[in-house]
Specification:
single chain; 219 residues; alpha+beta; Aminopeptidase; six-stranded mixed β-sheet; four-stranded antiparallel β-sheet; elongated
């Protein structure tokens, strides 16, 4: 199963899910699927294929590498329950909830250290805005930070604080607000190069439960 969308200015097919029933594994069926699919994708002007694979799945990594996929970056997934008292700044800021359709996405890049992965991208969120809430933190009309969460499950798709507003307790206040409403929090696909965000998530009590590779094949 593939989703088709623009990604880094290229029309991209993202592997949403691949499965082979156990008794037919090892028969190179994934290779056959891709060898069939790639000419069709090219006919529809798809310029690259993108997928994510768990780092311990060595057989899958080898299969995708043999098809010409290359590892582009490492992604870290977190999960856990946090419990801490917000810093004093919590009483001096406003935390609001807005619909993804009403959030000013032109400012989102200001909060990022690295671009979100496919499933956490702005395009993916806006395909199903009814599933998500954007939580903003700031004063009056000024937004200092934000997080995008799954309204029912509490999964965090994106989060960030303006660089000039970091180390002031805003991140703690934002995640304390989320934790009060969702006892278990998960955050998938944090870029492993984003050392500061990873340190922050560990500091508030979340644990790494999966690490993935993002792999890409240019068509």
């Amino acid at each position: 199963m593939h989703g088709i969308e623009e990604h880094n200015d290229k029309k991209t097919a993202f592997d949403i899910g691949t499965g082979v029933i156990p008794k037919h594994r090892g028969e190179r069926l994934v290779a056959q699927i891709y060898n069939h699919a790639i000419p069709i994708l090219k006919q529809h002007n798809v310029q690259k294929c993108l997928l994510e694979v768990i780092q311990t799945n060595e057989k899958a990594i080898k299969a995708y590498s043999n098809l010409g996929f290359e590892i582009k970056r490492e992604l870290v997934c977190f999960k856990g329950s946090i419990d801490f008292k917000p810093m004093a700044i919590h009483k001096k800021v406003c935390i609001n909830t807005v619909s993804p359709n009403k959030f000013d996405w032109t400012m989102a890049h200001s909060f990022w250290n690295f671009a979100p992965s496919w499933e956490q991208s702005v395009q993916a969120i806006l395909h199903n805005p009814h599933l998500y809430d954007v939580i903003t933190i700031g004063k009056q009309d000024a937004v200092y930070g934000y997080a995008v969460i799954n309204s029912k499950q509490g999964n965090v798709l994106q989060f960030g604080i303006l660089k000039e507003r970091r180390n002031q307790g805003l991140g703690h206040s934002l995640f304390h607000w989320i934790w009060k409403r969702h006892s278990v929090i998960s955050i998938n696909n944090v870029d492993k190069r984003d050392i500061k965000s990873i340190q922050f998530l560990k500091r508030i009590g979340l644990n790494v439960h999966v690490e993935q590779y993002e792999m890409e094949k240019i068509l």
